[in-house]
Design goal:
11-stranded mixed sheet, about 350 residues
Length: about 350
């Protein structure tokens, strides 16, 4: 009966599907802000998830004894009074009958009355909590972590907000015939047939809550999944390996892009030099023909193998040559390789 009333409350209040009804009155005190719950998918036939309470809070599964400093704010949400007529032939009606054991002989419906009065909303300061968890780590030796990690279907969640009653509340159920006036009675000696049932529960009882899933990394760091798009769980070894390979791929791709950019700029520079060389008369460019200039030699005659030209060998194609100059040196090497035409004259023109 309590579960039916909390489900009805969540359905009417809404909150975009984030609110979860408390399934049992005996566990209502375990759904407080910063408490931990386990979220499991029932099976592929049931799209809804099952939430199971735990006796632990977020602080219990973290390394260190430092308290969580995130505060909890509270405010009045609404005044809730509900009366509904439920068919015995529906799933909700069957659930109520099985839950409270009411006598439904000669009845086709159940009248349910929930009087919660003024309810308050208590929520964690999300921004403060997000700043604090950046320096905290998960304790993998905790029993709850070990058990949840071994199950691929279990997701740890943190209760971020809870909705509570502010006064003593009552729930009452009456079995009758649809269309007649339904009257509500508390159980007493004048109700021998058991057609009326009622329960009274104390103030400050949690009737609904909402959670953020936890995504826990292999190194103990964790994230709060603050949106419905992000999903919680444990980082798996294969997932971490794939993520590492993906990052390495991006690094190599960026490095190759930069290298190709440098090569492209070098090629453009060489193209400008060569076009400038060929656009001028020979008398202005052939520096090697002038007196006092460096001499073009065949390096093979000096037991120096063929190699890339210091100018055009830096382009997309490693152009090689056997010619060079002994009067020039680069990086401690006592000669430079240069094509006979036009690299030899372009090099010395630039050096001059």
């Amino acid at each position: 009966m309590f579960a039916a009333a909390t489900k009805s409350f969540v359905k009417q209040v809404g909150d975009g599907g984030r609110l979860v009804p408390v399934p049992s009155l005996s566990e209502a005190d375990k759904y407080q802000p910063l408490s931990l719950v386990v979220k499991k998918k029932r099976c592929f036939l049931f799209p809804r998830y099952k939430f199971t309470s735990t006796p632990f809070t977020l602080k219990d599964i973290l390394l260190g004894d430092r308290e969580i400093s995130a505060g909890i704010s509270s405010y009045q949400l609404l005044n809730y009074e509900d009366e509904s007529d439920v068919s015995l032939y529906g799933r909700r009606g069957n659930h109520i009958v099985n839950d409270v054991g009411i006598n439904v002989a000669g009845s086709d419906s159940i009248a349910v009355k929930a009087s919660f009065g003024v309810v308050t909303k208590h929520e964690v300061e999300v921004s403060t909590l997000l700043k604090e968890i950046t320096t905290r780590k998960i304790n993998f030796d905790h029993s709850l972590i070990r058990q949840s990690r071994s199950s691929r279907k279990a997701v740890l969640c943190v209760v971020m907000e809870s909705i509570r009653t502010t006064r003593q509340c009552s729930l009452s159920v009456h079995a009758g015939i649809r269309g007649e006036a339904m009257r509500f009675h508390f159980m007493d000696e004048q109700n021998p047939k058991g057609r009326d049932k009622a329960i009274v529960f104390p103030a400050h009882t949690t009737i609904a809550f909402s959670v953020f899933e936890l995504f826990i990394y292999l190194d103990g760091a964790f994230d709060l999944c603050v949106t419905s798009v992000s999903k919680g769980g444990f980082e798996r070894e294969e997932t971490a390996t794939f993520a590492l390979l993906y990052r390495l791929r991006n690094i190599l791709f960026e490095r190759n892009r930069r290298v190709m950019d440098v090569i492209s700029r070098s090629q453009l520079y060489l193209d400008d030099l060569f076009s400038d060389y060929y656009d001028k008369p020979l008398s202005m460019t052939d520096i090697s023909l002038k007196e006092g200039t460096h001499i073009r030699v065949n390096l093979l005659n000096h037991n120096i193998p063929k190699g890339p030209c210091i100018l055009c060998g830096m382009g997309n194609f490693k152009r090689e040559t056997v010619y060079g100059c002994f009067q020039c040196s680069v990086d401690g090497q006592k000669y430079v390789r240069l094509h006979a035409v036009p690299c030899f004259d372009v090099w010395h023109k630039r050096m001059k």
